[in-house]
Amino acid sequence: MKIGIIGAGKVGSALAIGLAREKFSIEGIFSRSNNPVDILGKKIGLSFNNSLEEVVRKADTVFITVPDDVLEEMSLSICEHTATEFIKGKVFLHCSGACTSGVLAAISEKGGFTGSLHPMQTFADRLEGWRGLYNIYYGFEGSFEAQRAAEIIVKAFNGQLLLIDSEAKPLYHAAACVLSNYMVTLSYIADGLLRAAGIDTNTGVRALAPLAAKTVKNIELLGPEGALTGPISRGDSGVIAQHLDAMGKRCPEFIDVYRTLGKTALEIALKNGSISEEDERRLRELLT
């Protein structure tokens, strides 16, 4: 399979390096500036001209890894700068978790096969992100021909393809955002609480990391309902009252999110049957 990459950001770089390591032929990389293309070329031992037309002309499967809000614009640009004969019959995959393959409509009209292939992973490092491509799930939505190409690529990374209905893509992407982005947000809040308790950030992060890792493992083994522990799961309203009192004095900015998340934890505890009706009443009063 001959691969082209349009967009040399974190995801595009991860794919370029990872696919090259798996012996796919990287035919071209395009970016708005030359520097990312040069850096990636050196990383995988190749040299590229940073030409949009050349990427599409040489590749048979093209990844479009630009920001979501310019995907449609890039689709139009590809059609404007590339002859139809070099688009027709080829596969074009964007990597947005939220957008459907419909944003590549201009390419479809030229005879290209379009799809969205979204790695359910976080990519924070441009040159080492490729390591996260392995043994994960990839959300896919698009044409049959694009799906066949996606299956080959995902198999190379020992991954699993997750077929997504186009209308459900926003919910699929929201799930990934809640877990990944909001886990970072929650770690920020937890760090803030520790700092209010007199513990510096470096120490706090090191202290919280094993707890976070074990929690993720428990979720993997037991599911989110089975993994719930802590005072709400035990109906311990006295501890929750202490939390709220201390936050009110030292870091009131975190109380609203604490209460909101606590209400959802309460629903899980009720579903698990781990608390009594009286426990529920007391906890709900504190969290409202």
Account of the 3D structure:
A seven-stranded mixed β-sheet has the order 2-1-3-4-5-6-7. The mean pLDDT is 96. Helix 6 links the parallel strand 6 and strand 7. The chain has helices spanning 10-21, 34-44, 52-58, 71-81, 105-109, 144-156, 169-196, 201-226, 231-234, 237-250, 255-272, 277-287, and strands at residues 2-6, 25-30, 61-64, 91-94, 113-119, 137-142, 160-163. The chain is elongated. The protein is built from twelve helices and seven strands.
How would the global form be characterised? elongated
What strand order characterises the main sheet? 2-1-3-4-5-6-7
Order of helices and strands: EHEHHEHEHEEHEHHHHHH
Q: How far is it from the N-terminal to the C-terminal residue, by CA?
A: 57 Å
Largest sheet: 7 strands, mixed
- Give start-end ranges of low-pLDDT stretches: none
**Derived structural class:** alpha/beta
Secondary structure topology:
Layout: E1 2-6, H1 10-21, E2 25-30, H2 34-44, H3 52-58, E3 61-64, H4 71-81, E4 91-94, H5 105-109, E5 113-119, E6 137-142, H6 144-156, E7 160-163, H7 169-196, H8 201-226, H9 231-234, H10 237-250, H11 255-272, H12 277-287
Parallel strand pairs: 1-2, 1-3, 3-4, 4-5, 6-7
Antiparallel strand pairs: 5-6
Which short descriptors sum up this protein?
about 290 residues, alpha/beta, seven-stranded mixed sheet, 12 helices, elongated
At a glance:
It contains 12 helices and 7 strands.
